## 1
Amino acid sequence: MQHDKVLILDFGSQYTQLIGRRVRELNIYSEIHPFNKIPSNINEFKAVILSGSPYSVRGEEALHPDLSLIRGQKPLLAVCYGAQYLAHFSGGEVAPSNTREYGRANLAYIKGDEIFFSKIEEGTQVWMSHSDTIKHLPDKAVLMASTNDVKNAAYRIDGESTYAIQFHPEVYHTKDGKQLLENFLVKIAGLNQDWTPQSFVEETVEALQLKLGKDKVVLGLSGGVDSTVAAVLLNKAIGKNLYCIFVNNGLLRKNEFENVLNQYEGMGLNVKGVDATNRFLEALKGIMDPEEKRKAIGNAFIEVFDDEAHKIEDVDWLAQGTIYPDVIESVSATGGPSATIKSHHNVGGLPDVMKLNIVEPLKALFKDEVRRVGATLGIDPELLGRHPFPGPGLGIRILGDITAEKVRILQEVDAIFINGLKHWGLYDKVWQAGAMLLPVESVGVMGDERTYEKCVALRAVESTDGMTADWVNLPYEFLQRTSNDIINKVKGVNRVVYDISSKPPATIEWE
Ligand code: XMP
């Protein structure tokens, strides 16, 4: 790749990925690596950013990498813990802070650096989140800015392109954070801003053609954004040698299989729809435990997919829609600085019996970049804006055992809810929404009759990545209409409740 690259060394902050995304928003390519694994190709990176951390520089498990290959060797921006560690590493002193250093603060310039703070006015709002403070700056440090509570809020090292800030430029509440990152990366480090969705598409298509030649590739489509964008990219690169398989596990949303299959065909994809509803329902019969259900669904998927893939002669590659957050090696925030690889729900579940080579065209992209690339490829915005939907589908939204009748009921309820959200212009304001079929029956009256029927729970959450989430304050009038519609139209349901739990402690799904 010919693009300039930024190395982000991760010390375990919850915001590290956000730094990566902000840099990418400037059309500059960034990679995140654990603090203790400075990549051997460090020379290929034109600048380095040190992230924040939940750890203390003074702690027993302190994260103390050797920065001598970096400091003074290439442009360096140290953020929060990074700024403290840079001070500590360079002979300064870090101590516990005795004032509150969380939340909003305003920068006062001491010797505001003209380039570093270019286009940023004194007094700008920044976001602090730390409990240690830099008591003494290291040798050759020049104090650039302070806040009311934090004396050493920004400093640089004289004679080097080394900068350190105690606040977080990557979070939304630091008003000029993106400008500051741009000042550092473009004006100081001299990086080119040429990493764009368009350039990604062109280079990836070329690289895929080179890698795959005339080989055949099989890919499982799910109806979701990632697998769709991966398919369209591969289709652009190798055309009909991409064989897509779209499996109906019987646990999709109402009419989803037919609609999405049509859409895929309309996009010119070489796709085969396989309706395996009965096979999945059979495999799920009588299973109550959520993890057992997930396993049964996963295994049935592998069998069906494997059967279908075997029907394609001489297939060499398996394509997956893996994205960057699935492969970033993360520094664990609990249990010490051990490095673990995050495993994604769906990664690794595909047929190893086939022993195929794996191709993952999206593995350098964050989710928002996948959408931008999808838009560049001309994929329908409605498809790109779809809520996430779990692999096991309605199977983990029907609490307890699964039957065809329960799936039918939940599909009807879900369709009324989701179509209602769209109709009321609420769909795009919600990160994910769906309905749960509860394993209780409750008493109701319909006409003069007492009924004893099912209860459904509606769930709508806002979130950025599904790791934390809050319930959405949907208008009462919308909830009222939706509840009426569901009870009047869906036979077998006489009660609707709305889930007002946040994650944590509740999860988004009920199973
Ligand atoms: P939870 O329920 O853990 O969900 O708060 C977080 C996000 O993950 C999705 N999810 C799954 N996705 N297979 C998937 O592909 C699963 O088994 C699974 N379980 C939860 C969930 O829909 C939400 O977006």
## 2
Amino acid sequence: MHVNGMTIRRFASPATAARALARHVARCLAINPKMVLGLPTGRTPVPFYAELVALFEAGRVDFGRATTFNLDEFAGLPPEDPGSYRTFMQRHLFSHVNVAAGRINFLNGAARDMAAECRRYEQRISRAGGLDLLLLGLGANGHIGFNEPGQSLVASTHKTRLTLATRQANAALFRHKVADVPREALSMGMTTILHARRIVLLATGSTKAPAVRRLVRGPITPQVPASFLQLHRAVEVWVDEAAGARLSAGGE
Ligand code: GLP
């Protein structure tokens, strides 16, 4: 299905979507072993990372020459903090596959000069030749990376304040204590995201259905940062039945 220039792919379950996405990434890496890959965190990509690890163990994917850039990180947390996204990625992907340590790129949430850290990240992405394929999750409030809904959006990598809803959605990383979830984060900006050559957004589960509808069929508005993906030439939105349940052309 194609809506507003976006390709929508529907899958029977989160598991089938995860398997298909892992195979897709493996194929892309086979074609372009030096691929520059943008990666998300969250619960949604966990089965996808598990599938990638399984493919790697079966000798069916090789990250040896690939470069990765993660989308975002909590501010104030050193990379080795148990709640950091860096730790999450180590646990779910990097410790199991052969991405070269020097080609894993992450925002450092503990950087003393956050503005300089954000500039460094942008430069690093440019020097790597830009993102070939950026994988995204979707916040239930329509955020991508940590670009939260608001009056305006920020173009480049920046420090941002997190909404309470987003802090609640991330509480599992902090022993379910919302108070322990950092209030600020660093994130790729909207232009950083929209400059990726290809984007695949993965959304699963019924809690994402309203945001998926707004992303695909709603007006382009900073109140739904993901709606800006309608402006991109090569976006695919991959959903399971539950997340895609409100996508039909009629009313909500
Ligand atoms: C976090 C991340 C986003 C992610 C979102 C959805 O806030 N910063 O990049 O897409 O959560 O998470 P989940 O997949 O757990 O619903």
